[in-house]
Every structure is written in C-alpha cells, then in structure tokens.
Amino acid sequence: MAVMAVSAFQVLCVKLCRSLKFYQSNLYSTLVPSDEITVNYKHGLPLITLTLPSRKERCQFVVKPMLSTVGSFLQDLQNEDKGIRTAAVFTADGTEIAASTLMEILLMSDFKLVIDKITYDVQCPKKEKVSSEQATEMENMKSLVYRLFTALHLEEFQKKREHHLLEKIDHLKGQLQPLEQMKARIEARSEAKISGLLWAGLAMLSVQGGAMAWLTWWVYSWDIMEPVTYFITFANSMVFFAYFIVTRQDYTYSAVKSRQFLHFFHKRSKQQHFDVVQYNKLKDDLAKATEALRHVRRSLYLRMQVEELDEKK
Fold it and tell me: Could you tell me which residue ranges the Calcium uniporter protein C-terminal domain spans (predicted)?
C-alpha cells in the first residue's frame, strides 16, 4: 500500500509540473499583440505589419525605401482599408512628417502613425553600422538604380509631361481668347485715331504752306516773309529738341506714331478694363509652355529615331 501511494504521488507531481510549465509558457508568450505595428526586414525590404481598423485583420505592406514616400504609403493604407478617413505620420516628438519624405529616411528612427485619431508607436529595428567602403558602394548602387529607373521610365514621363503641357496650353489659350478679342478692338480704335492724327498733321502743314505762299506772293514780298520763315523753322527746331528732352528719343515719324499709339491704347484699355499685366503674363506663360512642349517633343522624336536605328541594326 505504501509503494502504491508513493507512485501515485509521483505521477501527480509530474502532471502538476507539466501543467505549471504549460501555464508559464502561455503567460510569457512572444506573440505580437493584435493592435501593434511592427517593422521587419525580409529579403532586404522592410515589411510593415499592422491591423486594419475596419477589417480587424493583420496586413503586411512591402516598402521600397528608395522609391516609396510617406504619402504613397498612407495612400496604400487607405486603399487597402476604405474605412480609414485620416492617416498621418509624426516623429517621436510630435512633428508631422511631410508626404514627400522617402520611407528610407522615415525608417531610420522610431515614429508615430496616427490612424483616425488613434496613435500607434512604431519602433524601427536598428541597422548595423557599415564601413565607409560599404557606404560608398551602397551610394553607388543607389545612384545606379536611380539612373536605370530614370532611363526605363523616361519615355513614360515625357509623354505624361507632353499631355500636361498640352492641357496647360489649351487652358491658357482659353483664357487668352476673350482678351485677344478685346485687344484687337482696342488696337483698331487706337489705329484709327493715329490715322486721323496723321492726316490732321498733313492738313496743318498744307495750310501752313499755302498761307506762307499767299503772304509771300499776294500780300507781302519775299523780303518781308524771309525773316518770318526763319523764325518758324527755328520754332520747329525748338519743338523737336523739347521732344527729345522729354522722351529721350529722336523725333522721327515712326517713333512719334508708336508712342502716340501706345498712349491711345493704354487710355482705351483703362476705359474698357483691359488688364494689360494679366495679358502679358498669360502670353509669357503660353510662350514658355510652347517652348517646353517643343523640347519634349524633340526629345521623344530623337528617342524614336535612335530606336529605329537600333532595329535596323
């Protein structure tokens, strides 16, 4: 009986120890809480694992550090869970991080992810320090990847830019169309005034010449009219010199006509509320967009020629 009691006690102790070990293993489990955000590296790429608020499911996001930005990561997060209304990233001290920041820079230190006013503290694994030679090789590799990416996507980028420039040119032309019509009316009115002024000047000179001839041959003699014509010529010279002092331009008929035309044009523009500054700005923007479009199309044409030559070879 004593032997049977001892063996039963040993079996009970073994079962009790096993249950205690099982309880301790559950108590000190290393499972990640369901609402925690973790950052791990797999095949050299960061994996951000988090729980989607609406679906209550764990989801992994693969990050391309050299290409992905904070804005693209937040956009991917909202695309995956349509129930997310707002999402933002802050530093550990509460400073908001710009959407254009590369994920490579973000993952260098801990940060906070705020989803619908709920803050999650994210701890990034520390990277091992690399030597200067390894750092140089890494920078060269990054530069090479960037150049390859640019070369592979250059044509797509240029086509998008061409489409953007075409839309911009159409928009500028739409804004310029009513201004061009108003400008044409003002120019026509100013040109008519200039033409009338020129004909008035011709008529005044004709009357002056006729009056001088009448006074010389019918009223007085040349001996009397000679000093008069001299003073009239001297007065005209004084007028021309005064014009040069005021305008700093030589007195020529084309210069006088252009100056008077601009005077009539700006006066008429103020009356009809034609914004000359806005018109000039739109014209400059249109010229720049047209020049940029010409360069883009030239690059695309040269690229097509190179591809055709490669195909012929």
Answer: 80-282
